[in-house]
Fold this protein.
Amino acid sequence: MSTQAPGVDHELVQAATHIARTRTHGDNHTVAAAGRAPDGRIVTAVNAYHFTGGPCAELVLIGTAAAQGIHTLDTIVAVGDRDRGVIPPCGRCRQVLLDYFPASHVILGPTDHLHTLPITALLPESYVWSDHQLDSG
C-alpha cells in the first residue's frame, strides 16, 4: 500500500470507495461521494444519472447531509465505480460546493498522489452567490 498523503482524509476516501464498490449499479449510479461534517460524521451518496441531467454524487451528498441535519461539510471527495479512483468535481458541482460550503476542501488526484485543495482553488476569481444576495434585514 502506498504511503498516505499528509492532509488527506483517507477515511473519507475509503468511505466513498466502499460506496462506489458496493452501491453503484449499472449506468444509473456510477459515482459515490463522501463528505465530512464538522462534528466528524461522514455522509455518503451516489449520483442519479439521467440523460436530462440528473444530479452528480456531490449534489446528492448536499441533500443527503441536509436530511441528516448536517448543513456544513468540511471536506468532500468523489470516487468512480469500477475502481476508477478519486475523480474531480465537474464545473457545476464546483460552483454549487463553493456556494454551499465556501470554506470546504476537496480531495483530488490519483490514488498515489492524493491531495486536498480548498474549493476556492478550483474556481479562482469565481462568482460567489452569497456575496451578491441582498440582506434580508
